[in-house]
Amino acid sequence: MIKKMSQNASPSSSAGPNTLCPIALAQEVVGDRWTVLVLRELFLGNHRFEDIQTQTQATPQMMASRLKKLESDGMIERRPYNQRPLRYEYHLTEMGIAFYPVFLALRAWGETWCKPRKQGVAIHYTHIPCGKNPGLGTVCQECGVVLRREELSATLSKSFVAERQKRKEAFKGNQV
Amino acid sequence: MIKKMSQNASPSSSAGPNTLCPIALAQEVVGDRWTVLVLRELFLGNHRFEDIQTQTQATPQMMASRLKKLESDGMIERRPYNQRPLRYEYHLTEMGIAFYPVFLALRAWGETWCKPRKQGVAIHYTHIPCGKNPGLGTVCQECGVVLRREELSATLSKSFVAERQKRKEAFKGNQV
């Protein structure tokens, strides 16, 4: 069963801020840069603690606190992938997946305003229903349909793959 | 002249994080809950320090640091509105205004997932080109056009007006 955050933390409860503003309420859940980076990794298909830590470059303590809060807010859920020892993966709930349009909008803005003009996009998408590049934004520039995560196929740019691979190697190096 | 953040803080510079990821880069600018609330006020037409402080409920120190960073990141600019003593208003730049789709997506998600089901929306919009309620999201549910800030007319709900009025009175009370 999907648990809406509002069922256990309405704005009038002591748990949440006393406001009707959806922006302020949303920021109680996602108003932290590390939390957003954790969600990014989950959207990219990274589900395990170490892999998320590697790519966000957060400390284990920071990771643990963000994952715990995301779980209690209803954004993610833990699923066991190993029994002995018991190990969990982290997966987005329906509430978490519903956050995707914010990511698309944030990606569009970040690609446009926070990067040198000639640097290519980090992730190339293909809009599966029309087979074309949906462009930046929340709507496909080719077919005009609102973009959904499950209808996008992602290819990381060579340099972004290299950046992530480098972090992986650095992390492994630190573990030895 | 519009100053893109990238011109003074490319990802490879020491000022920014060493990444190609637009989400991580964007979070360097807006990855802080108070910063987002300041931007919300600017989008709502509040341009003066005290008015923004009243509605975000931040301390003057928090406000000052966020406004300073937003200005140095190219999101806002100061405009004098009084000469003696010299006083400034804060206005969104083109880079700041371009952040609006993220707000629309965040609003949609917050209204849907962070509030009790029966609580109405905080702000009712009318999509000026079609004259109808654009619904939640970044595209008008009626005419299918991508929503732009200047094509939306906003009406705050009675209870949201009351909430904001209450904060105003509380702030004035504290100043006496």
Spatial order of the strands forming the largest sheet of chain A: 1-2
Q: Please write the CATH class name of the largest domain in chain A.
A: Mainly Alpha
- Which series of helices and strands of chain A comes N to C? HHHHHEEHHEEH
Examine the secondary-structure arrangement and name the CATH architecture of the largest domain in chain A: Orthogonal Bundle
Average pLDDT over all residues of chain A: 90
Low-confidence stretches of chain A: 6-16
Number of helices of chain A: 8
Helix/strand class of chain A: alpha+beta
Task: Write up this protein.
- The structure is a homodimer of 176-residue chains.
- Mean pLDDT of chain A is 90; it is low at 6-16.
- Chain A contains eight helices and four strands, in the order αααααββααββα.
- Chain A has helices at 5-8, 22-30, 33-43, 49-56, 60-72, 94-97, 100-113, 158-175, and strands at residues 76-82, 87-92, 123-127, 152-156.
- In chain A, helix 3 (33-43) packs across helix 4 (49-56).
- The first copy, chain A, has a two-stranded antiparallel ribbon.
- At the A-B interface, helix 1, helix 2, helix 3, helix 7 and helix 8 of A face helix 1, helix 2, helix 3, helix 7 and helix 8 of B.
